[in-house]
Design brief:
It is built from 13 helices and 22 strands. Strands 8, 9, 10, 11, 12, 13, 14, 15 and 16 form a nine-stranded mixed β-sheet that branches. A six-stranded antiparallel beta barrel has the order 17-18-19-22-21-20. The protein has a five-stranded parallel β-sheet with strand order 4-3-5-6-7, sandwiched between helices. The longest helix has 39 residues. With 492 residues, it is an alpha+beta fold. The chain starts with a strand and ends with a helix. Helix 8 packs antiparallel against helix 10. The chain is 35% helix and 33% strand.
């Protein structure tokens, strides 16, 4: 047996024609051997003892069996039954040889599973033609079974690999599509979700590598289960971020709604993520989620040696920009996603106009607190935090990381009110809402507490004097201890 390349490029075994003759007469065996000797592609085996025929067949794996109907010890028709009952020979073509043409015997042989009937000794050309015809059909069957077995093994590997990222019906759709592994793409209207653990880069710099990986695994394990529940396609894990597609490779009429419902459940599940983190002594983490709907190009990207199922297009970048505006616990969606879901189905906690990089004109994004209808999922109602006024303003320096005031020059200001991770800052400038800041904090004696406090502007307090509210997105341990001391003592 050798390997042969099929048209589909799958390597299959090329089986040789192998003949097994079962006949108690040595003369018949020798005559048939001489008939087949000139045929280089045919292997001939002769078994004179019918009681050993099954054992011989199991050893040589014939592609066709020729057997006599009249033999001592074992009746020919009984041997037909044995061959058909034996798993290794159940499907092997069987040609019955008889000394005369008998319609009743022939009919009984066919009824028991024989494939052909010849009066011996047949013409040489005829017997060779019949051997080739039956063997070809059986070899084709063997190769189809082999190809099916290989396909099933490949599918099991695909299911084992991609089943961790895709829901079962999406994996089924990929496996059932004959063109599923081809390079190339198509334009598709989908809903894209991007998630990120806010401030996790700074947390990761302070922890051992094994702790960082453990936190990410706790997070991704929980979120993956939810994403698959809502039939999302996890396109990629990017560190602590997740890139998910709703609408490819399987398009559904409620892709946007499922994406929003999925996002809400993911935010609710952060309670469990942080419970597990606390149990292991890790810091708590917070998640921001951005969702956008639009046209993208989706398909298999790469080369024949290495490819991935992915998407490209401006709407992918826009989703990333929308997600970047979030603070921990928030879900922001684009106007296109709002239209796909229907405003009446969503609880909109806030809306704002932003000018993402690479966009020609401002867009409106919406903070989502829940979705009604069949999903009926909601985050806790937003409550305006009443900040506690500090006995004395806390001096800070901040750098605007983006927006019209962005630059390397530090601006001075003071924290005048504060509660947990939210603070009000007064300064000479008032950064735009959703601007990211890097803040340096010192105590009243001028002792530096930290230069690595990060925050996002979440609202405007007053214009004169300029005051704005921030949410801290990454709080170093030294700053956290300092703020807790301030809160506990009511003084600096």
């Amino acid at each position: 047996m050798t390997d042969d390349k099929t048209e589909q490029g799958v390597s299959l075994t090329q089986h040789r024609i192998t003949v097994l003759l079962v006949d108690d007469q040595a003369m018949i065996g020798e005559a048939l051997r001489r008939m087949l000797a000139p045929e280089q592609d045919i292997d001939f085996h002769f078994c004179q003892d019918p009681t050993k025929a099954i054992k011989v067949a199991n050893r040589i794996h014939p592609t066709v069996i020729l057997q006599d109907l009249v033999m001592p010890e074992v009746d020919g028709l009984t041997l037909v039954r044995y061959f058909r009952a034996n798993p290794a020979t159940r499907d092997v073509p069987l040609i019955v040889l008889s000394s005369r043409e008998e319609a009743l015997t022939k009919a009984e042989a066919f009824a028991l599973g024989a494939n052909d009937y010849l009066v011996k000794l047949p013409d040489r050309l005829e017997i060779i033609a019949r051997i080739r015809h039956h063997s070809k059909g059986y070899i084709n069957l063997l190769q189809r079974n082999e190809a099916q077995a290989r396909l099933e093994r490949a599918n099991r590997l695909i299911r084992k690999t991609f089943g961790q990222y895709l829901s079962d019906d999406i994996v089924d759709a990929i496996l059932e599509s004959p063109e599923g592994a081809a390079l190339g793409g198509e334009k598709r209207f989908v809903t894209i979700m991007m998630t990120d653990l806010r401030g996790f880069t700074a947390i990761g710099e302070r922890l051992p590598a094994e702790d960082v990986v453990s936190i990410i695994n706790i997070y991704l394990e929980t979120m993956t289960e939810i994403i698959l529940k809502y039939q999302g396609t996890i396109d990629e894990f990017i560190g602590d971020a997740i890139f998910v597609i709703f609408g490819a490779p399987v398009l559904r009429d409620n892709d946007a709604k499922r994406a929003v419902a999925c996002a809400v459940e993911m935010q609710l599940a952060m309670v469990e993520v942080n419970r597990r983190c606390r149990e292991k002594g890790y810091p708590e983490v917070q998640q921001g989620i951005g969702i956008n709907s639009g046209q993208i190009v989706v398909g298999n990207i790469g080369s024949k040696k290495r490819m991935k199922y992915g998407v490209v297009g401006r709407n992918v970048n826009l989703t990333s920009r929308i997600e970047s505006y979030t603070v921990g616990g928030q879900i922001f969606i684009s106007e296109s996603t709002l239209e796909e879901c229907g405003r009446h189905l969503l609880r909109i906690d806030d809306e704002m106009e932003v000018m993402p990089k690479g966009v020609k004109r401002p867009i409106t994004i919406y903070e989502i607190g829940g979705i009604r209808g069949e999903f009926n999922l909601f985050l806790p109602e937003k409550i305006e935090v009443e900040l506690a006024e500090l006995p004395e303003p806390l001096p800070v320096l901040f750098i605007v990381l983006e927006g019209k005031h962005a630059g390397d020059e530090a601006c001075s200001g003071s924290v005048v009110r504060m509660l947990d991770a939210t603070a009000e800052i007064r300064a000479d400038i008032r950064p735009e809402k959703l601007t990211n800041l890097k803040i340096s904090v010192s105590d009243l004696k001028g002792n530096e507490i930290t230069t690595d406090l990060y925050a996002k502007v979440v609202g405007t307090e007053t214009d004169d004097p300029a005051a704005f509210r921030v949410r801290f997105t990454s709080i170093p341990p030294e700053a956290e201890i300092f703020f807790k001391t301030v809160a506990a003592q009511g003084r600096i």
